[in-house]
Design brief:
Elements lengths: L1 H35 L3 E5 L3 H11 L12 H8 L5 E9 L3 E8 L2 E7 L2 E6 L4 E3 L11 E3 L4 H13 L7 E6 L5 E5 L4 E3 L5 H13 L6 E5 L7 E4 L3
Length: 231
């Protein structure tokens, strides 16, 4: 009889030990989750409207254990925002993530596949609904690859052309460009040896030979065709 009572006590003690241990473990896990659950997401480098747009998208990360939230998951979420150029994610233990963002420079706007897009210096077509603050930028017409436009921009900048005075770019199937300036002047570039043509255009410009000219046609090598504004 005493042996049965002893066994009963042992089982009772064992039951209470397991119960108390479980309660302790549950409480520990709860405290652990509360302590390291993501509570604060700081977004820096954007306007207030852009910041709100991204905050809504990152809301699902709230309360996730900060150790389980990888940088790749955050980057994947932000990858749809084509206007971003640089993204830096920094975890601050126990419950904060700092995200520093920088925007690409918008070089122009175009119409592609039935939609309006902006062209970023980062080499991406950016859906118009992602750009909230819009400055005056040139329009680009034609079915071009974005690298073709970026290469043209690079050539123009290297040769000191004032790209801020270009209002419209026209791209043609033979891979050449026309430049329409704010003063009404149209410059027709060739498909090859663009640098040479730009040098010729700048020489005409610097020598004040374009006062009454509306078209500078440089499409043919070693040939300049000037059209007067009255023609």
């Amino acid at each position: 009889m005493l042996q049965s009572i002893s066994k009963y006590r042992i089982y009772l003690y064992l039951f209470f030990f397991i119960f108390l241990s479980s309660v302790f473990n549950f409480q520990f896990l709860k405290n652990y989750h509360d302590l390291f659950g993501l509570k604060i997401i700081n977004i820096n480098g954007l306007s207030s409207n852009e910041k709100k747009m991204i905050e809504i998208d990152l809301k699902n990360f709230q309360n996730i254990n900060i150790f389980k939230l990888s940088e790749d998951r955050v980057l994947e979420k932000l990858s749809k925002y084509k206007f971003l150029e640089n993204i830096y994610v920094n975890k601050v233990i126990p419950s904060t993530i700092n995200i520093n963002l920088s925007k690409t420079v918008i070089l122009g706007k175009t119409f592609k596949e039935g939609e309006n897009f902006f062209i970023g210096q980062n080499g991406k077509f950016i859906n118009s609904n992602q750009i909230i603050e819009k400055n005056k930028i040139p329009e680009i017409f034609g079915n071009f690859e974005i690298n073709e436009f970026l290469n043209l921009q690079k050539i123009l900048n290297i040769n000191g052309l004032e790209v801020n005075k270009i209002e419209k770019y026209y791209y043609f199937k033979n891979k050449r460009w026309d430049l329409s300036f704010s003063d009404g002047l149209l410059v027709k570039l060739p498909s090859k040896k663009i640098e040479k043509s730009i040098f010729i255009y700048k020489e005409l410009l610097n020598n004040n030979k374009l006062g009454k000219i509306k078209i500078v046609d440089l499409r043919v090598n070693n040939q300049i065709v000037l059209t007067n504004r009255n023609e």
